[in-house]
Design goal:
Blueprint (H helix, E strand, L loop, with lengths): L4 H4 L8 E2 L2 E2 L1 E2 L15 E3 L3 E5 L4 E6 L5 E6 L7 E6 L4 E4 L6 E7 L5 E8 L2 E8 L5 E3 L6 E7 L5 E8 L2 E8 L5 E3 L7 E6 L5 E6 L7 E6 L5 E3 L7 E2 L9 E6 L6 E6 L5 E3 L7 E7 L4 E6 L6 E9 L2
Parallel strand pairs: 3-25
Antiparallel strand pairs: 1-2, 4-28, 5-28, 6-7, 7-8, 8-9, 10-11, 11-12, 12-13, 14-15, 15-16, 16-17, 18-19, 19-20, 20-21, 22-23, 23-24, 24-25, 26-27, 27-28
Length: 311
């Protein structure tokens, strides 16, 4: 079943050490030039983009950067896929079934969205054409499948699937529907995200203990390695920023916050520090913006922060 990631988060709060120093909090604007590790990653201020529309879960940015897609329970207290135009501030509810739809992922041309649907206890992945509303069934309804991620070339779809009481990662060739099993652990492997070059898949898993942390799967060799992280319950990795960093959520500081995780050094930095929970980081690589969902003002709302990446 779809797991509200907030509900999954148990409190594993402990002091985190990064290169023998506590995890750092990102605070300022470009003028202050808060720089993070070798990637020279700096952030702008938080900007509220959209809110007051029920409980918002999961978030995606279109390839052009002008549209957001997310799940909202505003209509039926379950969840619909909603499309939001950032410039015009207009929204369109794409799915209006009696079921929960969530986890949107834009196609590479921005004309369709892949998403998860829970039809009465049967979880699968579908695709909807934005213009026509035509729906295509992607995964076999005989197996529970969720958390879709599209490869950079748009030819492959990764997701996790529950089969034989195991939660492993799978990959589908979208041209012919053939599947490949990527992991074969008895642990829980969730939330796959392709790297920007398509050579790796990032995901979170409890394969190293009772809590969840981040891992990297090399697609060529099948080797899995752990990523340095903030500790605590760490989940929801984003696509990476030019191979230098990615964003993820952790409760290491006491509630759920977004962290920047270096892919070049053992270093993490806390990006959000508000008292409310921050979830579902997604990047607009074209315009260098980080989007995420937050409860910092009471309701569920979408916020953005511009970022800059040095050489």
């Amino acid at each position: 079943m779809l797991r509200d990631c907030a509900a999954l988060c148990r409190v594993f709060v402990r002091k985190q050490i990064v290169a023998n120093k506590p995890v750092l909090a990102v605070t300022s604007f470009f003028a202050a030039a808060t720089l993070l590790w070798a990637a020279s990653l700096s952030f702008g201020a938080n900007t509220r983009v959209f809110g007051e529309y029920g409980k918002l879960q999961t978030l995606a940015v279109s390839p052009s950067g002008d549209l957001l897609a997310f799940s909202s329970d505003y209509r039926d207290q379950k969840g619909d896929i909603v499309l939001y135009n950032i410039a015009t501030k207009s929204k369109t509810t794409l799915t209006k079934t009696p079921y929960l739809e969530s986890q949107p992922v834009f196609s590479r041309d921005g004309k369709a969205i892949y998403y998860f649907i829970n039809e009465g206890g049967k979880g699968s992945i579908q695709k909807i054409e934005i213009a026509s509303g035509a729906i295509t069934q992607i995964t076999n309804k005989s197996f529970w499948c969720e958390f879709p991620s599209l490869s950079p070339d748009g030819k492959l779809l990764a997701y996790y699937s529950k089969r034989d009481n195991k939660y492993n990662l799978y990959e589908m060739n979208l041209s012919n529907g053939s599947e490949k099993r990527l992991t074969k652990e008895s642990s829980f492997d969730f939330g796959p995200v392709y790297s920007s070059n398509g050579q790796q898949i990032y995901f979170y898993s409890n394969r190293k203990g009772s809590s969840f942390s981040l891992f990297k799967l090399d697609r060529a060799s099948g080797n899995v390695t752990s990523l340095f992280g903030p500790g605590g319950f760490t989940f929801q990795p984003s696509r990476d920023v030019r191979g230098k960093a990615l964003f993820a959520v952790s409760n290491a500081a006491g509630n759920n916050d977004v962290y920047a995780i270096s892919l070049e050094a053992n270093r993490v930095d806390q990006v959000t520090t508000a008292a409310g929970n921050d979830f579902f980081p997604a990047i607009d690589a074209r315009h260098n913006k980080l989007y995420y969902i937050s409860q910092r003002e009471g309701d569920y709302a979408i916020y953005s922060r511009a970022y800059q990446v040095g050489n």
